[in-house]
């Protein structure tokens, strides 16, 4: 049973729990649906909240900390410091869905897994003041209380300065201590959001310490806010290692000898083809980019990508550019940077965003792209006002452009490329609303006659991810086809796959689409904001094609060449009848989070601390 206690500056949730290690991500062990009021469905605030939660996992600020804002909605998430980055991202992504389910109309809410915590709030009412306080119902015996309390105090006393300022940008410390004269071991952990100063973190942890002292007879306690947290137990609830960002290399990541030079002139294009894979690349001077972006000013910032911010710039020759600035705290960012440069210099197609060059200087890692005036597809498709600009003709141009870009990657370029993260936010739109595929940091190259590959590190976005990839780590061109099918249904319906509603109720996206099509009610799936001059028959054909793409068996899915033929009306026969898509994809995602990722450590620092008893802290 939960009870609520109002304190001076924040609301704390107090609960008790049994001494059971919570390792499964399904254990959503704390939640609070705020009392600051409800929002109206389909209101501007709901749209803001949808946007901020949908984009949250693309705003990693380093060390498992996410925050995002849209209109009046703010959200923040923090993963426990020992959690591997990809598992962290999945936990946050899952928390956004779970919290919306349990708090469907509240303007403020918070929720906690063992691996991560998430909160969101209405900025007009101030920052989130949510806190959680939990305690184990089992108590220490009276005879052992003195030594127990001394050991808890000693452990916390060591971990607090380690988390607050002991040289760890992660603001995380964990360790254990054996209680003197007892077989009991105490495991403790402290953490602050990495954007806090040492003093702010120390003060925040001090408040949390005072909160858990009221339960000093309990064998376990936890005190969380969305800014800092403390927890101790008599069982190991954290991993013995954590995952720091790798140090910046001492030399250039990409010597200029690795790439050629491209000046971006029209002569670079090959006549009679819409691709250009000459492999030439321009190495930009950092000063040129600083001048173009006004020293990366806030006014130049376009948004926040998965591995850092993106800025608009203007070169001295008048060309507009977009600059992706790799976050220095991005755990996998250097790998992504190198992958993207080395891959895209070999790929040029009118439906792929053109990489103009790169810049490597000291700790700066920059990618310079052609500027796309209309941002990404999701900023239009899921915006209540801007979506009206996407009439059927524009959507058709966008869809066919995406399909041709994927066909080029899979079949027509000199390499066979699997994108692995096809989604609406990775489709950019130029000033004429032509679609271009972007973000190749997670792409993989297939060689020769290779048809599929397997990986233990799943990358991509749930909702767009094929079941064989999410469950088993198997990917191929057909896993990209699956993602395209989901994206095509989003373009038809004007709704996000993970925020889909039908007749005012949340529904499974693919199941509902298949059922409506099967019952000859496919027109009910079509975005009702584009009813004028709208070819219903064409939209129903798109739904049929999309359902062919998301069939459970990869062998049943068409190739992208076939998809292009179907979309452009070159398919003379009746379209095939699709089989039912996976109906339990949420279950697939939950399984994969536990069983298909590997734990890899780039660097681990273990620090031994000599105290009364034995203590080892990972910081």
Description of the molecule:
With 619 residues, the chain is of the alpha+beta class. It folds into 3 domains: 1-243, Gnk2 domain, C-X8-C-X2-C motif (Killer Toxin P4, Chain A, 2-Layer Sandwich), CATH 3.30.430.20; 256-370, Phosphorylase Kinase, domain 1 (2-Layer Sandwich), CATH 3.30.200.20; 377-595, Orthogonal Bundle (Transferase(Phosphotransferase), domain 1). The protein is built from 14 helices and 28 strands. The strands form 7 sheets. Strands 1-2-8-11-12-10-9-28-27 form a 9-stranded mixed β-sheet, covered by helices on one side. Strands 13-17-18-16-15-14 form a 6-stranded mixed β-sheet, sandwiched between helices. The protein has a 5-stranded antiparallel β-sheet with strand order 3-6-7-5-4, covered by helices on one side. Helix 8 (392-412) packs antiparallel against helix 10 (477-493). The longest helix is centred in the first third of the chain and has 21 residues, at 145-165. It is globular, with a radius of gyration of 26 Å.
Short description:
With 619 residues, the protein is α+β, with helices and mostly antiparallel strands. It folds into 3 domains: 1-243, Gnk2 domain, C-X8-C-X2-C motif (Killer Toxin P4, Chain A, 2-Layer Sandwich), CATH 3.30.430; 256-370, Phosphorylase Kinase, domain 1 (2-Layer Sandwich); 377-595, Transferase(Phosphotransferase), domain 1 (Orthogonal Bundle).
């Amino acid at each position: 049973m939960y009870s609520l206690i109002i304190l001076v500056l924040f609301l704390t949730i107090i609960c008790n729990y049994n001494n059971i290690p919570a390792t499964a991500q399904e254990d959503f062990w704390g939640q609070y649906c705020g009392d600051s009021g409800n929002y109206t469905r389909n209101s501007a605030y709901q749209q803001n909240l949808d946007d901020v939660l949908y984009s949250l996992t693309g705003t990693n600020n380093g060390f498992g900390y996410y925050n995002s804002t849209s209109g009046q909605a703010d959200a923040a998430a923090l993963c426990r410091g020992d959690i591997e980055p990809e598992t962290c991202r999945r936990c946050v992504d899952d928390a956004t869905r779970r919290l919306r389910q349990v708090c469907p109309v509240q303007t403020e809410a918070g929720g906690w897994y063992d691996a991560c915590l998430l909160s969101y709030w209405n900025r007009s009412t101030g920052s989130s003041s949510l806190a959680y306080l939990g305690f184990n119902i089992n108590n220490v015996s009276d005879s052992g209380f003195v030594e127990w309390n001394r050991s808890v105090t000693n452990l916390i006393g060591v971990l607090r300065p380690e988390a607050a300022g002991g040289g760890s940008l992660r603001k995380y410390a964990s360790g254990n201590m054996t209680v003197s004269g007892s077989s009991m071991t105490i495991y403790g952990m402290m953490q602050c959001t990495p954007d806090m100063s040492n003093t702010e973190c120390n003060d925040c942890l001090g408040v949390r310490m005072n909160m858990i002292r009221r339960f000093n007879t309990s064998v376990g306690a936890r005190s969380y806010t969305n800014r800092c947290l403390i927890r101790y137990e008599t069982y190991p609830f954290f991993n013995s290692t954590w995952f720091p960002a790798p140090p910046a290399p001492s030399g250039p990541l990409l010597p200029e000898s690795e790439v050629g030079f491209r000046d971006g002139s029209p002569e670079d294009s090959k006549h009679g083809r819409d691709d250009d894979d000459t492999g030439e690349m321009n190495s930009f001077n950092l000063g040129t980019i600083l001048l173009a972006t006004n020293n990366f000013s806030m006014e130049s910032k376009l948004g926040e990508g998965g591995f850092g911010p993106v800025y608009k710039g203007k070169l001295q020759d008048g060309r507009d550019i977009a600059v992706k600035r790799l976050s220095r705290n991005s755990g996998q960012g250097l790998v992504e940077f190198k992958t993207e440069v080395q891959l895209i210099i070999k790929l040029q197609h009118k439906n792929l965003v053109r990489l103009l060059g790169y810049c490597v200087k000291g700790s700066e890692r920059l990618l310079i792209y052609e500027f796309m005036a209309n941002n990404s597809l999701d900023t239009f498709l899921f915006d209540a006002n801007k979506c009206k600009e996407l009439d059927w003709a524009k959507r058709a141009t966008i869809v066919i452009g995406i399909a041709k870009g994927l066909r080029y990657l899979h079949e027509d370029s000199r390499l066979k490329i699997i994108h692995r993260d096809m989604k609406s936010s990775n489709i950019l739109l130029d000033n004429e609303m032509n679609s271009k595929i972007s973000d190749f940091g997670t792409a993989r190259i297939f060689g020769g006659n290779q048809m599929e590959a397997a990986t233990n590190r799943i990358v991509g976005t749930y909702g767009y991810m094929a079941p064989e990839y999410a469950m088993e780590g198997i990917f191929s061109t057909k896993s990209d086809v699956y993602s395209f099918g989901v994206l095509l249904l989003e373009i038809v319906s004007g709704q996000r796959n993970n925020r889909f509603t039908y007749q005012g109720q949340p529904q499974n996206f693919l199941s509902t689409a298949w059922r409506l099509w099967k019952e000859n009610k496919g027109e009910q799936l079509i975005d009702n904001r584009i009813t004028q001059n709208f070819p219903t028959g064409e939209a129903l054909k798109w739904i049929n094609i999309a359902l062919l793409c998301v069939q459970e068996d990869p062998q049943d899915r068409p190739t992208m060449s076939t998809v292009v033929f179907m979309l452009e009306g070159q398919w003379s026969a009746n379209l095939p009848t699709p089989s039912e898509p996976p109906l339990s994809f949420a279950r697939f995602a939950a399984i994969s989070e536990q069983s298909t990722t590997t734990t890899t450590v780039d660097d681990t620092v273990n620090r031994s601390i000599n105290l009364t008893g034995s203590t080892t802290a990972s910081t």
